[in-house]
Write a structure and sequence with these properties.
Rossmann fold; 2 domains; 8-stranded mixed β-sheet; binds magnesium ion; alpha/beta; 18 helices; binds adenosine-5'-diphosphate
């Protein structure tokens, strides 16, 4: 963890080996065969490595695929495609005794200790269960092991016969941790382990996790949405958005100087006491697109504040440009929305439907603007397609005129800086201005 940063230790770490290697992993949730339905692309092609003994943080907004990724690494979800190598062995296809061994080596601690602990079992039984399932040594040794684990996580021997409801949230999370440690795993996935706890309790549990890592040489994947927690506890951080890792690299460096536009936006949203009051703020408009229908190009393209523009629009007013982007998003949503029953009736009767409200939207967005004639013409043309219920043609038209590489091509993970940091953004490829530079001009 990041508290150990002496030069000596860093040299030790750089000589360490890879524990986990993930290659182009995808996990899709299929809808029980609904005709024509798209799968939820919860994890959509991620690649990364975790070194032995390190803590990799995994952050991102709710619904971006963090838990699904964690659960896929645990073999609680089946991977749709890709590889997960633990100590060099692909675990996505393990079975029999190999799978059983894997289930000893990798453990998970869940966010909500209430629902993850069986309320009808005593603490002793809960912690002992994995030992029983794996027929670990003799029953007497298992009991002794449970008592030892209770002490390890800061609970008492007399807690053995109590039930989960007799404990506080923090204590229950300690029980979950003891259970995860029972079979002496190498790798623990912590899925928002302190999110449900009071701040004062959070610190204690985090300290416990750090101590345990040092004592037992554990490797952690630490899932969180609280960036302050991640900053404190992680060596490296992966930032996830819509099933993709947008940026991954050393925690300090990334917090100091984010390379990817999404990391930038995510960090600028953290409230931080800044006496000078000049913290850069980027407000992200809208919400992430549906993981059933992610953008074709860059996952972040529909919301990116520094999206690449076609040359002829580079100097267009920023506010106007944003409005064009919003218009495109409205059309996307409109195309996806089911036409309502009353609209259907109106349509059958040959009356105007709500779809005709495109005019309204156009006025709302551009009415008060001094829009250059050529831009106005493109907007009107697209609006006309939409009014004739052809959102697809409207979108295609705007894409043709205002779209860029960000809409059409998925970026590669490109290296930024010297410390193995990777970022998914077309702006890193040299032909364009770096995201950070564009942010600077936006904030001024
Ligand atoms: P996070 O942990 O980052 O909040 P999740 O991995 O829980 O995100 O969810 C990622 C996406 O997958 C979300 O859109 C969520 O609704 C969807 N999802 C999660 N579990 C299932 C499931 N069992 N079936 C279908 N969709 C799911
Ligand atoms: Mg989750």
């Amino acid at each position: 963890m990041s508290s150990t940063t002496s030069t000596e230790e860093q040299t030790v770490r750089s000589s360490q080996e890879t524990l986990l290697e993930v290659n182009d992993l995808k996990t899709y949730y299929e809808d029980g065969g609904l005709f024509g339905s798209q799968p939820v692309k919860a994890v959509d092609g991620v690649s990364f490595e975790i070194e032995k003994g390190e803590t990799l943080g995994l952050v991102g907004e709710s619904g971006c695929g963090k838990s699904t990724l964690g659960r896929t690494l645990m073999r609680l979800e089946e991977a749709t495609a890709g590889e997960v190598k633990l100590n060099g062995t692909d675990i996505t296809t393990l079975s029999g005794t190999d799978l059983k061994q894997f289930r000893e080596d990798v453990q998970m601690v869940f966010q909500d200790p209430d629902s993850s602990l069986n309320q009808r079992m005593t603490i002793g039984e809960i912690i002992r269960e994995p030992l029983d399932v794996h027929e670990w040594k003799t029953p007497t040794e298992r009991r002794a092991r449970v008592r030892e684990l209770l002490e390890t996580v800061g609970l008492q021997e007399e807690h053995y016969y109590r039930y989960p409801h007799q404990f506080s949230g923090g204590q229950r999370q300690r029980i979950g941790i003891a259970r995860a440690l029972a079979l002496e795993p190498d790798f623990i996935i912590l899925d928002e382990p302190v999110s449900a706890l009071d701040v004062s309790v959070q610190a204690k549990v985090l300290n416990l996790l750090e101590d345990l890592q040092n004592e037992f040489d554990l490797t952690y994947l630490f899932i969180a949405h609280d960036l302050a927690v991640v900053k404190h506890i992680c060596d490296r951080v992966a930032v996830m958005y819509l099933g993709n890792i947008m940026e991954i690299g050393p925690a300090d460096e990334m917090f100091e100087n984010p390379a990817n536009p999404y990391t930038h936006a995510l960090l600028s949203a953290i409230p931080e006491p800044d006496p000078s009051g000049n913290r850069d703020r980027i407000t992200l408009r809208g919400t992430p697109p549906s993981p059933r229908d992610p953008p074709t190009g860059c996952p972040f393209s529909t919301r990116c504040p520094v999206k690449i523009r076609p040359n002829e629009y580079e100097t267009l007013d920023d506010d106007l440009w944003q409005r064009i982007e919003i218009f495109r998003e409205v059309l996307r949503e409109r195309g996806r929305a089911e036409i309502s029953l009353s609209d259907r009736v109106r349509k059958i009767l040959g009356r105007e439907t709500a779809q005709a409200g495109v005019d309204e939207t156009v006025t709302e967005l551009f009415g008060e603007f001094n829009v250059p004639a050529d831009v106005q013409q493109h907007i009107d043309e697209a609006a006309e397609y939409a009014e004739n219920d052809d959102e697809e043609a409207a979108q295609a038209y705007l894409q043709e005129e205002f779209g860029s590489i960000c809409d059409s091509e998925r970026p590669d993970q490109l290296e930024v800086g010297q410390n193995g940091r990777l970022s998914l953004c077309h702006r890193h490829d040299g032909a364009y201005e770096e995201p950070a530079t564009v942010f600077e001009t936006l904030i001024q």
